[in-house]
Amino acid sequence: MGKLVWQIVVLCSIACLKPSVAQYLSSCQTPDGDRGTCVLVRECPFARAVLMKQKHSNNDIRYIEAIRCGMLETKALVCCNAPNITQTDKPVEAETIAELVENRFSTPEEKRGLLPVECGVDRYRGPVRGEQAGLFDFPWNVLIQHRTKDGENRFHCGGSLISDRYVLTAARCIMGIKKTWTVVSVRVGEWNLQTNPDCTSATVDTECAAPVQDIAIEKIIIPTNYTGTDSPAVKQDIALLRLARKLEFNESVAPICLPLDTTAWTSYSTESGQFYESGWGKTPDAVAGDNKWNYASVGVSRDVCRAQYPHANVDEEQICATPQRLEDTCRGDTGGPLMYSHTDRAWYLVGVGSFHKQCAIRGEPAVYTNVASFTDWIIDNLEP
Q: Which of 137, 258, 291, 344 has the greatest number of beta carbons closer than 10 A?
């Protein structure tokens, strides 16, 4: 997989992106809650000591990031509770800290550390049969929000949360939309589109989820070899969305696991295995659903899939699955997850919804981007 990518920077409003820059020698608060002064790095003994270490731990990196309080021309400012203003050493350029943070995550092994340790955990343990999902089922489901030329916000695609900063969806959800539309944000923690917060009274006591979170998109990354929806053979239909801020996890917002351990999949066939899907897409009668639903699918061979899509040139970077019942993902679920429940009881993101002929026709497969083929690409593009 090539390392070159298209990077489409989606700008927030000025208020969203413009940092709050404290003035030199102004008051500030340290990460420990102590009162401090915003000074040059050379004037803060503790910050200097951390930066001068030969090796830096994750805690060192997080601390240096947390105490930054602005810039004085090109010099970095840090919040210090015991500054020494008489220091006369050479000031630390702001780029020094930026390089330190960037270099800390320069190898694939280090970038894997940006993914959550715990993933794929939810409350759902029953069979998935084409039914309304529970309030806290599949908490990694997200909705991609677009803004129309009239300024109206709409949900047009789905996606999957893979960390507190990244979402995986289909490239066509970004590149294949109307030219007058703009991708603006991601909604997490959703269940019923008409209520916020979402509540259910299925049990004796009413249970409610936390309010939904709408998070602006900071950057969109798409493989250079994505062929686009104009091509009959849509390839590398996957996109990585970096959110403008870190998410707050709760019972209705949590990440799904990526299939990073290839040895765990050697005995599992993507051409005959049991898969699961969930989303808010339109039903076969073209009625948009307010609630999240889940569905069961089974993998089919690529030969069968090629017969259904003779011009698509389906290959190893794609998975085909067909619905077990007449319920299946439909328009609006593009970009959403094709999932597998592993023997370790964790849920894994196997595929990203790419395309299909029609919705919910038994025996007619839908095509998904094979996430296992893109894990190196995903990890390579993660940032702190």
A: 258
The CATH number that domain 131-381 falls under is 2.40.10.10
> Are 197 and 211 within 8 A, CB to CB?
yes
Beta-bridged to residue 121, according to DSSP, are none
Tokens of 327: 């319920």
Task: Report pLDDT digits (tens) over 136-187.
Answer: 889 999 999 988 888 888 888 999 999 999 999 999 999 888 888 888 899 9
317's tokens: 């970077």
- In the numeric block, the tokens 């608060």 are attached to 29
Peptide bond into 197 cis (omega under 30): yes
**CATH architecture of the domain with range 26-86+95-104:** 2-Layer Sandwich (3.30)
The secondary structure of the chain in percent helix, strand, coil, rounded to multiples of 5, reads: 15, 30, 50
User: Hey, where are the domains in the chain?
Assistant: 26-86+95-104, 131-381
Q: Which of 257, 230, 234, 224 is nearest to 353 (CA)?
A: 234
pLDDT at 317: 94
Q: Model pTM?
A: 0.71
CA distance 156 to 333: 8
